[in-house]
Amino acid sequence: MRLEARAVTKRYGAHTALDGAAFSTGDDARVIALLGPSGGGKSTLLRVLGCLLVPEEGGITLDGRALPHDEDGALIERRGNGFVFQGYNLFPHLTALQNITLPLREVHGMTATQATQRALELLHRLGLQGHEHKRPSQLSGGQQQRAAIARALAPKPRLLLLDEPTSALDPVMTGEVLDVIRELAEAGQSILLATHEISFARKVADWVVFLAAGQVQESSPAAAFFTQPKTELARQYLEGLSKYR
Ligand SMILES: Nc1ncnc2c1ncn2[C@@H]1O[C@H](COP(=O)(O)OP(=O)(O)OP(=O)(O)O)[C@@H](O)[C@H]1O
Ligand SMILES: [Mg+2]
Fold first, then answer.
1. I want to staple 115 with a disulfide (CB 3.0 to 4.6 A). Which of 55, 95, 110, 200 is the partner?
2. Among residues 157, 175, 203, which one ends one of the domains?
3. 68, 99: one domain
4. Nearest ligand to the CA atom of 40
């Protein structure tokens, strides 16, 4: 995919979370990582790119097509995307299987049989055989995240948007979820990932957008960003993190 953002501004009341953010990727970016310090605007940009939020100013194009600015258009656009957000994913009162079949039926118009077939396919692909009929509270954190990824993938999203999908997981569960994301990337799924897992971004991303204070400081092929960051801020960010990894 090729993503371009032009002077995107997004405010929450008096607070400007994105302040003229602009970048463009190469033509064939598959996994784009949004990196940068906490509060820099990664989640906000991810939501804008996924059409969960409409910016006050500026615009986005995806493969040359302008994303809609109006609420109705954004709603239709966002149905074509899959989202996974740490901690807020599954409906607690539904089983893993029902969590996937409900949106397939209600939002995507599948019959119960089609939805069940597709949900089982995804649950098995993500290694959740035998867990189909458990509720989220009966699954481990890593299993819950994998079920959430299965749900996001079930309608065959154009874009899969992941916001720190591993932030509350222990290292083993983090590894499980990261393996899944890596396999998806290798299978050709377009992915946008906001993360603090620099070592993972390094393995999986082919493009990096580095954000701080609501502005894009760098937008580079991942290999270039990690070896030769252009800005002092990115250098400090990578060095600061590398002390702990
Ligand atoms: N719903 C909201 N209402 C008001 N301010 C918000 C809201 N969401 C985010 N902000 C503010 O906007 C700025 C950008 O937040 P955002 O969540 O995009 O940052 P982030 O880069 O994802 O940070 P983190 O790495 O901590 O997840 C922050 O200053 C934050 O406090
Ligand atoms: Mg965030």
1. 110
2. 157
3. no
4. 1
Closest ligand to Cα 19: 1
Give the total number of structural domains in the chain.
2
> What's the one-letter identity of residue 166?
T
CATH of residue 16's domain is: 3.40.50.300
Q: Which residues lie with the beta carbon below 6 Å from any ligand 1 atom? A: 12, 15, 17, 38-44, 194
Token output for 72: 């109705």
**Which pair of structure tokens corresponds to residue 186?**
């290798």
Domain membership of residue 86 (yes or no) is no
Here the tokens at position 96 are 């893993």
Give the three-state DSSP class for 221: strand
Are the CB atoms for 201 and 35 separated by under 8 Å? yes
Query: Shortest CA distance to 118 belongs to which of 142, 134, 102, 137?
Result: 102
Domain that holds residue 236: 3-80+159-242
Q: Report which secondary-structure segment, H or E, holds 116.
A: helix 112-125
Counting from 1 in the atom list of ligand 1, the atom nearest the Cα of 47 is: 18
HSE at residue 87, side-chain half, CA atoms within 13 A, is: 4
* Rounded-to-10 torsion of CA 162, 115, 133, 124: -60
Lookup: tokens for 163: 């916001």
Q: Average pLDDT per run of 10 along the chain, which is 245 residues long?
A: 97 97 95 96 97 96 95 94 84 97 96 98 93 96 90 94 86 83 90 91 94 97 96 92 51
Q: Which residues of 96-130 are buried (b: 16+ CB within 10 A; e: fewer)?
A: bbbbbbebbbeeeebeeeebbebbbebbebbebee
DSSP 137: G
pTM: 0.93
Task: Tell me if 58 sits within 8 A of 8, measured CB to CB.
Answer: yes
